[in-house]
Amino acid sequence: MNRREILGAVAVTGLATSLAARAADDPAVGHEHHHDYAAAAGNYPDLVAATSHCVVTGEACIAHCLTLLGEGDKEMAACAKTVQSVIAACTALRELASANSPRVGRLAAVVADICQDCETECRKHESKHSVCHDCAEACAGCLKECQKAAA
Questions:
Q1: Long-range contacts, stretch 99-103, CB < 8 angstroms, 24+ apart
Q2: pTM score
Q3: What are phi and psi of 52, to 5 degrees?
């Protein structure tokens, strides 16, 4: 055994000993929490779910738009721009809602407008592209939850 192997073995043994000692002292170490999604969403579980869904479908939509743009379909440029905005806005709102921020209502009002813009743009393409239909539907659902939070 050379020096590097010995030092490596000592480091691994020390780490294992440290973790074992910490686990013995702290009952929370090794304890897995199985919280449901709604509990983690604070006071806004429906808003967090809607913004999350909007982000996921928006990401699929923008990927589709970029593919079509790469193929020369410039008609999808406006859709890509609105989807990019909705992803950014919904991500921010989801984070604030999860943290029970006092500013959720104010941001939700703005995000509602952004969702409306995205839904309107995606509806123009939904008969040709199912991903645009899915994004428009997600934006419509998110718009409703934003309006509730903004009220």
A1: 99/42, 100/42, 100/43, 100/44
A2: 0.72
A3: -65, -45
